[in-house]
Amino acid sequence: MSAAEPKPVSMFDVARRAGVSHQTVSRVVNDAPMVAAATRAKVKAAIADLGYRPNRSARTLAGGTVRSVTVFTFDTSLYGTAETLRGIEDAASAAGFTVLVSVLDPEQTYTEGDILGRLSHDGAPAIVIAHDETTHRARRILRKAQPGAVVATGDDMLLAEPDADDWLVPLDDRLVAKRATKYLLSMGHRTVHYLAMPGKARRQDGWSEALVEAGIEPHEVVRSGWTIGSAAAAAAGLVADPEVTAIMCGNDDLAFGVLHAAHHAGRSIPGDLSVIGCDDSPMAAYHVPGLTTVDLDFRGVGRSAFELLRQRLEGGPKPRPAWRSPELIVRETSGPPRQRGPHPL
Amino acid sequence: MSAAEPKPVSMFDVARRAGVSHQTVSRVVNDAPMVAAATRAKVKAAIADLGYRPNRSARTLAGGTVRSVTVFTFDTSLYGTAETLRGIEDAASAAGFTVLVSVLDPEQTYTEGDILGRLSHDGAPAIVIAHDETTHRARRILRKAQPGAVVATGDDMLLAEPDADDWLVPLDDRLVAKRATKYLLSMGHRTVHYLAMPGKARRQDGWSEALVEAGIEPHEVVRSGWTIGSAAAAAAGLVADPEVTAIMCGNDDLAFGVLHAAHHAGRSIPGDLSVIGCDDSPMAAYHVPGLTTVDLDFRGVGRSAFELLRQRLEGGPKPRPAWRSPELIVRETSGPPRQRGPHPL
DNA sequence: ATGAAAGCGCTAACAC
DNA sequence: GTGTTAGCGCTTTCAT
User: Fold this and answer.
1) What is d(CA A112, CA A104) in angstroms, rounded to the nearest whole number?
2) How many CB pairs under 8 A join A and B?
């Protein structure tokens, strides 16, 4: 039943087989110069014959270049984080890096040791997808311990942190929310309500800024959890109120929850109520009615975060940001408010 | 700008500080017996003072117990894989294991070396979330190379493989699809069409079995990609055909695509057309109309996969499967076919 | 262009 | 109980 696992082949085995020293093998493996073409060929043949693969632990321990990234994130099943992770993975595997994922529980409080202990070793490169309190804390701990090997993605507020340019791939959450709110206002809504997800305070800032600039006093924010269900529950009061004609939501999932609640409250979309999401998740286009939202290129952000990290690690020119800028996508859940009162004309 | 990264503290530093040998520190760190309480306390104090954290690479290299798992999967943004991954992560981090994620591109063909080279070292424990050709191939390669350290999740067809009991956490895709199809048949549909996603042949098997047992000749399967959009496109012909009264879909996302296409084709749900999904993703309950689907406990499967791996690694009693069995969840997209023909009464 | 020696931080095996 | 000695597989530095 339990097959014997053959002893793995090491650099020395290859060396013996090729009739050279293990050091020469190392040179070949690492594409170092100063190896005769003939020797190189012999070694490569031996590597192929034996099926040799370098041991990453040994390489890391010996102080070789680290080719792995640890990604700290708080929920791999949310659209935004999943896509960011995908972007990181794409870029990382193209560059021959291994990706380690370390999931942080928002409910838990981690000590410095907890966070740093998740790295394979001190100084291991890391990317933090920072979107809530716990991940922000992890970002601070990691940046403090090893500033040269940590980059993060997060909202534009982080731009205020020291040297943010060097380590941040920012998403302008404030601007995104502001633009969406302004659009709703431009359709003629008297005000826009905001359904907030945990963290992500900047989206709320953008929303209230847009209102204030238009001379409107923002209503109190309604708070939701991360799930569609919690959004549906949180929005129950909002959708029941005929005075509410426009709701902007922290993300698409929350918007779907609101839409569900609105439907069950008998409100017609967008006649009675405009709803706008954020993220442009795949469902947004295929929901009926189509969800108006803002396209956010999380995958591009992930790729950029990796490139930035690599530049920090290996030097070289600062990579230029390579993600699409956010774009409002108007579909069918938004429109002008229906005329009310006794004189529709 | 670039702060000096302090030299990491090693076991020897702790040993010196505590006035013991590095070996004693190792014993304390690994909770080995044979350490005097007083010594243990001294060492723990030194560890805390110095902020010492063990180096995983060194530990792995020195042959200590490996506390990491590499998860091979093909798309972390799909609901099923994302949830399975979450389950693995939950169980793994509770057990003090690090999770590494290795994403395989379905479009690519990997050599044995490519796959094995993604492990941190030969023999490193791995879990394969096997749901398509590429991941199945990875599973075979890994199982062959190191049978003692690889488990997989996948459909029940794998039960036919040698020793499957020892390494497989099966999801009975055949039964799930069969049950859903039977339910549709029981509502009075003359036949049920199937919209397939790539791979996952067993769901198709279950569907056709149910039909054959009912004496119905299955129609040709319609094939879709993984995205909602591809499902909507693939289902265009199906939803345009008034003879089609029931469609079972490979998963919920495909079902949403079908629903979208059906809506645009002007068909009413479930009057003209019943649609059933698979997975019970969070959206299913909040879609309007609510999607009839089958609840699959991917998170439980992930947890079980990890527990099984751990048992393989460390011995001990075989863990009993700890995931909810699939359950049909009837919501609003399914019902009896509307009476047709000239004499409704 | 190649080899030899040293050591990364840790655990295992054996001493005391 | 605790310390000592050897490596694990690799990359460095320094010879040659």
Assistant:
1) 13
2) 167
Let me know: does B155 contact B202? Beta carbons within 8 Å. yes
User: Residue B294 belongs to what H/E stretch?
Assistant: strand B293-295
Task: Specify the 3-state DSSP secondary structure of B182.
Answer: helix
A313-317 LR contacts (CB < 8 Å, sep 24+): A313/A66, A313/A125, A313/A148, A313/A149, A314/A65
Q: Comparing C-alpha atoms, which of A323, A53, A293, A93 is closest to residue A176?
A: A293
Q: Quick check: B55 CB within 7 A of strand C?
A: yes
CA B60 / C1′ C8 distance in Å: 13
Read off the tokens for B62.
Answer: 């020195």
Taking the C-alpha atoms of residue A71 and residue A142, their distance in angstroms, rounded to an integer, is 11
Q: Please, what is the angle between helix A201-213 and helix A173-186, to 10°?
A: 40
**Cβ-count burial A87-113 (b if 16+ within 10 Å, e if not):** bbbbbbbeeebbbbbbbbeeeeebebe
- Paired tokens of B146: 């190191």
One-letter amino acid of A43? V
Say how far apart CA A336 and CA B31 lie, in whole Å: 67
Q: Tell me, what's the pLDDT at A165?
A: 92
CB neighbourhood size of B293 (10 A):
29
What are the backbone angles phi and psi of residue B148, rounded to the nearest 5°?
A: -80, -10
**Which residue has tokens 């999932």?**
A253
> How much of chain B, in percent, has pLDDT values that exceed 90?
78
- Interchain CB distance below 8 Å, A98 and B113: no
Contact A297, B241 (CB under 8 A): no
Copy the structure tokens of residue B203: 């769901």
Q: Which residues, in sequence order, are CB contacts of A111 under 8 Å at separation 6+?
A: none
Block residue for tokens 């006093």: A217
ω into residue A270 within 30 of 0, thus cis? yes
Q: For residue B61, which nucleotide's C1' is closest to its Cα?
A: D8
Tell me the per-residue pLDDT of B97-109, one tens digit each, with 9 for 90 and over. 988 888 898 888 9
Nucleotides of chain D touched by protein CB (<7 A)? 1-5, 7-13
| pLDDT (tens digit per residue) in A235-258 | 999 999 999 999 999 999 999 999
User: Could you tell me which of B157, B152, B148, B151 has the C-alpha nearest to residue B176?
Assistant: B157
**Chain A residue nearest residue B163, CA to CA:** A1
Whether A189 and A337 have beta carbons less than 8 Å apart is answered as: yes
> Does A83 sit within 8 Å of B89, measured CB to CB?
no
Can you give the pTM of this predicted structure? 0.91
